[in-house]
Amino acid sequence: MSTENHGHAHAHHDHDEHHRESFITKYIFSQDHKTISRQFLITAVIMAVVAMLMSTLFRLQLAWPEEKFQFINWMLGDRWGKDGIMDPNMYLALVTIHGTIMVFFVLTGGLSGTFSNLLIPYQIGARDMASGFLNMLSYWFFFVSSIIMLYSLFVPDGPASSGWTVYPPLSALPQAMPGSGLGTTLWLVSMTLFVVSALLGGLNYIITVLNLRTKGMTMSRLPLTIWAFLITAILGLLSFPVLVGAVLLLIFDRSMGTSFYLSDIYIGGQALDATGGSPILFQHLFWFLGHPEVYIVILPALGIASEVIAVNSRKPIFGYRAMVGSMLAIGFLSFIVWGHHMFITGMNPFLGSVFVFTTLLIAIPSAVKAFNYITTIWKGNVQYTPAMLFCVGLVSTFITGGVTGIILADSALDIPIHDNYFVVAHFHIVMGLSAILGMLAGVYHWFPKLFLRMMNKKLGYLHFWLTFVSAYGVFFPMHFLGLAGVPRRYYHNTDFPLFDNLIDINEFVTVCAIIGALAQIIFLFNFFYSMFRGDRAPENPWNSNTLEWTNGVGNHHGNWVGPLPVVHRWAYDYSKPGKDQDFVPQTVPLEDGEHDGGHIPH
Amino acid sequence: MNFLLLIVIVLFCVAASQIMKIFEISSAMRGEKQYVITDRDNRLNGRLFFIFLVVFFGFCIWQLFKYKDKLLPVAASEEGVELDWLLNFNFVIISIVFFVTNAFLFYFAYKYHGRTGHKAVYYPENHKLELLWTIIPGIVLAVIIFLGLRTWHSITRDPEGEEYMLVEVYSKQFDWTARYSGDDNTLGFATYKKIAPNNPLGVDSADKASADDFLVNPGGELHIKKGTRVKFVFRSRDVIHSAYFPHFRQQMNTVPGMTTMLHFVPTITTDSMKLITNNPEFDYVLLCNKICGASHYNMQLKVVVDEPAKFDEWYKEAKKKTIFASVPADSKEEDKKPVDPVPASNDTAKTLNSDTAAQKKP
Q1: Among A546, A439, A569, A544, which Cα is nearest to A123's?
Q2: pTM of the prediction?
């Protein structure tokens, strides 16, 4: 975290001198939501770089399986990368840890942790989170769990390798694969700590939103970002504990001889004692978290998009109530769809059809959201800040990845494409890409609040276009791999006649992946450079209505010098007829006869 | 190589910082803050979105034509044909949504790019519009759900009472073994406790039904008969695998501790498929599609669809090598029966039993 500390050297001229703090309480064990937010962001950026490097490595393997890459040997060592050829176990390990880090550490911890922490107090007009101490603990649990996850990469038998879903018996039996030894133990410990972090954070977000809104900030005036974070936190609070339950039972099975998930197994030349358990039980428990988790990842990104698109289209978000309603509907439905991950596990087909029904229902609120974004841009006066570019990209990937979800949710159609590259394409576009584009949009948009400086616009443009084009280049062709029947998590896609003619698709995908990875260097450079050397941010660089842009420049202890702002209107009065400016901050009182909220004035 | 990579990354950083300096100097010369969005930026990015729209759609369609021949050939089972129809039907719907909404998005992004002096339209809601795009997706989804579930139930139905050939497919790290049920079309009792070097599936020799069971070992050929429904039941020895028959559009997980099943009617023989695909090397294959360990990617079994006559020929030859060929099943059963009481519900064979109850001994 040393970068973090230096990064804030410039913030020493605190306007609010009454509260002196030591270096340690201010920058390391800080209870301030802004610092915690920065800590989450920088940790997540580091984790994202690690996970992205991993994906580049296994993409190399998929495109040029016979090729000897000296630097694979250099990175993985002789055991895992002998002669520059990746070991199949290491391939699976990389796939597993790539998924785990991206889903949990970047898109859950990083996305919610950064922006819920930054924006909830700022946008509702609170001095800080309800409990600064729990908030601090939330970060440090996240930090320790990240360290354990990274450490697991270096244990002799390799990290967990049974896929990010760690299905037993594969993950329960070290005889089945080397990664299921110490590596998986560390994975399970790390995830447990991660859940503790998510719960402490989520609890805090919910309490803060419900109790600490400033005067006038009714629930119906909340910016959609806050609605998204609130719903996300509730989802997390209800679903993450189930993962701990699942993980705990798996730990028992692994080390205490129970058989919750194991039954009738013969491995390594002997029959195991375990009997009566069911591997399917784990899948039910895992996906009870796992599916809401998908929405835990995407909702904050959609929340950020709602805000950024409205601000930069200079228009009110279209259908505020529908947006809140659809998020609530998505949140509710996300709890009763987990079985669509298990259509072909041998689950009763009738049960499957129930999950088809609930899953396809989710398409309706999702479609409403996409249409509303497009209508918000319609007849706007769109300002292309880098954040806005990323949000337009997000809407596109949300649609592109979303429509293939309709195919996968249809249990009959799921039979032939389950677990093949079609699925990989689907969830990377709809969840991975949309969420990461949303997160990057958030970074560009709120960088002035995070680090008090501006990021470079033109590098932002370059970053966006390279990322967006290469990302579609990576994931779109994967649909065709799926329709060609290529299973996921194959170390070679081309080792047998069936898929031999697909090598050119794999090469194309890998080239795009490398370009996409290199493009992130531009972002990293811009990010760290601007942190120290960027232009100083004005109070309200994007002419935005929300409260975080009303507290002057600089970080203030307690966020606002003097009394808290009072809210008089909703957050989306952009280009309101009869106003001089094209924005009316929430703190501006309503005029006589002026209606609040999204009504077309008569 | 490492060195080269390092140089590339360093050069990339240098280039980025140089580009940035140029940007900064040029904006400083124009006397504007580098982060302020100008009309030029808006026009540029708006146009880029339009270009992207064209290139992206072109790319999608180009891929469709380029990769068309690389996709799986025509479905080789009755169920597969039905699924392919459904898949295409769904693809038409989602393609329309995909193209239309993306077109609107990028076109609006281009058309309404910001201009100084221009003011956006204050348009916070329109209930009719919102109702419309809630109801239309609802109706379309209702159709999709109805058609999907109809197919789903017909494919996953239990074919009890219909005519079929029963074959067990057994998975273990990292290969497949098939056990044909023989002339009685009944699989003998099997349990993981009886697994031995000469009995990899743990078949119970005491069960009469196992007398005519015979195996296709890893590396062999799983023969099925064109036009005859085949019902596969699956067991797994160690971890979860997934039996994936891409050409027949069928898949089912194999789970230790329980049995699963699928069934289909193969309609195209291997020989015909060689002609259809214009590939004399073509073979049907059974793949593993659930991560199961290091050699997951290499776990496969060749599948052969024969004309009935050719299949019968193969079958006559294959069934001579029953699992317990050396021991007459009857005598074996006598000395086994009292010694081996069927253990409680925890036995795989028990579940197998219930699954194939109709064909089992009374």
Answers
A1: A546
A2: 0.91
